[in-house]
Amino acid sequence: MQIGFNAPTAGPLSTADNLTKIVVGGEAMGFDYATFSDHVVIPTAIAANYPYSASGEFPSGTRGERHEQLTEVGWIAAKTTRLRLVTSVMVVPHRPAVLTAKMLSTIDVLSGGRLTLGIGAGWMREEFEALGAPDFDARGTVTDDYVRAFVELWTKDTPKFDGTHVQFSNISLEPKPVQKPHPPIWVGGESGPALRRAARFGDAWYPIGTNPQNPLDSLTRFKTQVGRLRKMTAEAGRDPNAVGLTLRCTVFGETAPPQAGDGEHRLFAGAPAAIAADIKALRDMGVGCIDFGFGGSTADEVLTAMQKFRTEVLPLV
Q1: pLDDT (tens digit, 9 = 90+) per residue, 209-251?
Q2: What DSSP state is assigned to residue 176?
Q3: Residue 313 to residue 274: CA distance in whole angstroms
Q4: Taken in order 187, 244, 85, 253, is the CA torsion positive or negative?
């Protein structure tokens, strides 16, 4: 199983020195991948419902200065040698399809094949409008069209695409990504549409466990959703096990609530032995990657939390 950590993209920890210290330090500790979030602009008035808080409010601490995701990933690629780089997640409709395919291919080439493309359809209407992105209400079909266009551009010598939201022909895109047939596509989201998207063309499903509308806070709840995913994958004409399993954890440890919403043990809550047991249980059911958000107000505090996790939790797995 691979273990990842969240790289800061916003606030004081995302300065060049702090960001480098955290990511290079995480690579030296032996973490397998770093994740990078995606917002281009943060509107000053947000009516859209944030999916990952009980109140639906976008966290105030994430409204400040913020890097553009793909630029940051490319910059970090030059600072590291082994660490995989995961967009967590890239809001697909935010950027034009052909340009984005080129940027992602460039990152994969220059990093030596270390890019993993985590994708989502987005949730903030106001940001879509500020960016002049395609119609927010059509974001699901836009996302599907764009991702299929990416794959066409990455895998065909003479790519051609005639979708609802993107069309091209008589072009070439070179160099192709290093990874074949293309960088892994991890489909984020916990809803029915997200599961169907993962079933149709995902290399892995990449949910967050804290969505109040689709909670995955217990092993039973997670297994239930995996069962739905396997059924949808078969219905899409693929091997039911074709889609890998990954998970992003934002709340864990002894400060996390001990009980899930269904009354069972909350995943990753409790002492190191309990966290390790949950990781083992998920590994045994086929989860290949889990990443954690390590807290701290300074780069040293974040690295201390990461090192504590590696020394206290992972040896028990």
Answers
A1: 989 999 999 999 999 999 999 999 999 999 999 999 999 999 9
A2: P
A3: 9
A4: positive
Q: For 68-116, what is each residue's pLDDT tens digit?
A: 999 999 999 999 999 999 999 999 999 999 999 999 999 999 999 999 9
SS3 199: helix
Check the CA dihedral 23-24-27-29 and report its sign.
Answer: negative
Report the alpha-carbon distance of residue 216 to residue 223 in Å, rounded.
9
Gap between the Cα atoms of 108 and 229, Å rounded = 28
What 3-state DSSP class applies to 88? Answer: coil
Adjacent-strand bridge partners of 85: 34, 115
Q: What is the pLDDT of residues 135-178, one digit of tens each?
A: 999 999 999 999 999 999 999 999 999 999 999 999 999 999 99
> For residue 240, what are its two tokens?
């039911």
* Tokens at 289, concatenated: 């990657």
Does the pTM exceed 0.85?
Answer: yes
Domain boundaries, the chain: 89-183
Among 19, 37, 227, 7, smallest CA distance to 118 is for: 37
**What is the rounded distance in angstroms from the CA atom of residue 139 to the CA atom of residue 10?**
25
Q: How far apart are CA 42 and CA 92, in angstroms?
A: 17
DSSP annotation of 237 reads T
Residue 212 in tokens: 């109040």
Closest of 253, 251, 261, 249 to residue 291, by C-alpha: 249
